[in-house]
Specification:
The structure holds 2 protein chains of 2 kinds. By secondary structure, chain A is mostly helical. Chain A contains 14 helices and no strands. Chain B has helices spanning about 50-55, 80-85, 100-105, 120-135, 150-165, 180-195, 210-215, 230-235; strands at about 5-20, 20-30, 35, 40-45, 65-70, 75, 85-90, 170, 200-205, 215-220, 225-230, 250-255, 260. The chains are: A mainly alpha, B alpha/beta.
């Protein structure tokens, strides 16, 4: 019974993924006939150089970036929710994204205009940004671990996450006041959220790190399930709780930091998608939850990407779209928490 | 196993808590023995140190002094994995497993025995089914944990500990939130597990009369922080039951196996 529901859900998510990938190839600010797109993809070329470039260097990288970012943020949210035993945890609400953002801000603003665009061709500059994001996310995660040992309340931990976000944004504004105009501009446009920031040269690093971290999370299925019973039961089942928690938070930090560095601080996806996966599968068993979360995350991010490029007046920032999808789902979950199995 | 029936012994164990620089010792010089095939009830008033003692016995808290040996091996020096094959736990911790089926929840008990990804093979599934049958929850095998009553949930948690196939099962207040019928059922189940499956079962309880009727042995934490052990009959005869509560206006009444004014 449950297995059929699982295979059905996975199939549906894959079909949706294919449909969204095709839609993202076909639609955009420039109209390219479907036949020509097929010609470009099969290597024949469309005869129009601009179209070739748009498909190969803009739409395909954007599709890959969005799908991977969605999967990464969603798994990040799932791991945070299980680790902190808190269904409303997520990388943005707990301040992990803001922490990564602060790291990015320090690097961008310190380098000022010398970057020549946000994530330039220069390997050194985007590695510096990536490193900044990793450090920032890491610091916030350490703060969260420290507080979670002191405050036992889930709500308080969320509030601490929100306070951390406020603190980081005030530090960023202080930095802005002393930074160059170009640095500030770069930082502000990065903050809108954008799946077009990863170029072909950066793709192997971006995709490589995310895929490795996703594989690592799939290998943590057994201790994740034990943690559903709380730390004492997990220990009784032979789980080394501190070590497991550290591994999970490192995976979370890496996933959030990479996506934040390349795409900006993207909200809601990490919080919402694990719930979509749980509700559609009807389980909190991570063996089924992890693959469904990865696929659903990719789907949602591609949907946001599609909406963002379908505006004739220019690209809509991703962060203007995610709350519209995310907030109703969160409200639904909060209002129905007594009926939803995994809250009980 | 050992030649004699003792599988779990404490040697000069002291338990308590550390409060900043201060150490508060609740119980000390404990030399307790838990035997195969016996149901032992730990009784004591609130704050006497029942939970603290159990947390030390399950290695969730480091003892202030002394050690715990299982089959002659020091529990504290074992790996987490080895311990997980010796002691099964049923605690009062809130669990987040509402969206697991009972079978999945009980299946988590196989974790100490399964591989890296925790997949269950045919044998594991058989053990899980048997554990659910033994604890009388097999009828709810495919139901969500969230849909269970408190009593059913406790049976599922006991089934989970059974699936772990440990010689020792330790339960922290297993009947705390249950109605009378579920309490009796749970206690009978634990008695059966001890007597028929040869498990060493230790539970803490507030239910004096139930414990006196069903337990093979009692560990009584008295008001002067001693732990008296013995069969219920011996302890009653020795008048030990009158040292369980500080309140002088209540007295143990052996005819009803409970306290009265």
């Amino acid at each position: 019974m449950t297995y059929r529901r699982f295979s059905f859900t996975i199939m549906a998510l894959i079909v949706l993924l294919v449909a969204l990938v095709l839609a993202c190839l076909a639609f955009g600010s420039v109209d390219i006939p479907a036949g020509k797109i097929v010609d470009i993809l099969t290597g024949k070329g469309s005869g129009n150089k601009a179209w070739d470039i748009i498909i190969m260097q803009s739409r395909i990288p954007m599709i890959a970036t969005a799908a991977l970012a969605g999967a990464a943020l969603s798994i990040s949210g799932l791991l945070l929710q299980t680790t902190f035993n808190n269904p409303l945890a997520g990388p943005s609400i707990l301040g992990v994204s803001s922490g990564a953002g602060l790291g990015v801000a320090i690097v961008i603003l310190a380098m000022g205009g010398s970057l020549g665009g946000l994530l330039g061709e220069n390997v050194g500059s985007y590695m510096a940004i990536l490193l900044g994001a990793l450090m920032g996310a890491g610091v916030v995660l350490v703060i969260l671990i420290a507080f979670s040992a002191i405050v036992r309340s889930n709500t308080m931990l969320l509030i601490i996450g929100i306070l951390v976000s406020y603190l980081t944004s005030s530090v960023v504004q202080l930095l802005n006041s002393v930074a160059t105009e170009e640095g500030v501009h770069n930082y502000v446009s990065w903050g809108f959220g954008n799946f077009s920031g990863v170029n072909a040269a950066q793709m192997p690093i971006y995709a490589g790190i995310i895929i490795l971290a996703l594989i690592a999370s799939a290998m943590m299925v057994k201790p994740l399930n034990a943690l559903l019973l709380g730390t004492r039961y997990a220990r009784n089942l032979g789980v080394n709780v501190p070590m497991t928690r550290n591994i999970l938070l490192v995976i979370t930090g890496v996933l959030t930091a990479v996506v934040t560095a390349f795409c900006g601080p993207i909200g809601f996806i990490g919080l919402v998608v694990p719930h979509i996966a749980r509700m559609s599968l009807g389980t909190s068993n991570h063996a089924r939850l992890v693959p469904a979360t990865i696929l659903a995350g990719a789907d949602i991010a591609l949907l946001c990407a599609l909406v963002s490029v379908c505006n004739p007046h220019g690209i809509i920032p991703i962060n203007a779209i995610t709350p519209i999808i995310g907030v109703p789902i969160i409200l639904y979950i909060i209002l129905n928490r007594r009926r939803i199995q995994y809250f009980n | 196993m050992n030649d004699n029936n003792a599988i779990f012994t404490t040697r000069d164990l002291a338990v308590g808590y550390r409060n900043g620089k201060n150490t508060v010792t609740l119980l000390k010089e404990l030399n307790l023995t838990l035997e195969k095939g016996k149901l032992v009830a730990l009784l004591g008033q609130n704050g006497a140190g029942k939970s603290t003692l159990l947390r030390a016995l399950t290695c969730d808290e480091r003892p202030l002094a002394g050690c715990i040996e299982v089959n002659g091996r020091n529990l504290a020096e074992m790996s987490q994995k080895d311990r997980s094959r010796l002691i099964g736990l049923v605690s009062t911790e809130r669990i987040q497993a509402g969206a697991l089926t009972v079978t999945e929840l009980v299946g988590l008990g196989r974790q100490p025995h399964t591989g890296f990804l925790g997949r269950l093979d045919e044998e594991d599934r058989g053990i899980v089914r048997q554990a659910m049958t033994d604890s009388g929850i097999i009828g709810k095998a495919d139901e969500y944990v969230a849909s269970l009553s408190d009593g059913e949930r406790q049976k599922a948690m006991i089934a989970r500990a059974l699936a772990q196939q440990t010689p020792i099962i330790i339960l922290d207040e297993p009947t705390a939130f249950l109605d009378v019928a579920s309490r009796i059922e749970t206690m009978r189940l634990l008695q059966t597990l001890a007597h028929e499956r040869g498990k060493a079962v230790l539970l803490s309880s507030h239910d004096i009369s139930q414990s006196l009727m069903l337990a093979d042995e009692l560990w009584l934490i008295t008001t002067d922080r001693q732990v008296l052990t013995g069969t219920p009959a011996d302890l009653i005869k020795a008048g030990a039951m009158d040292h369980l509560f500080e309140n002088r206006s209540i007295h143990f009444n052996p005819t009803i196996l409970d306290y009265s004014f």
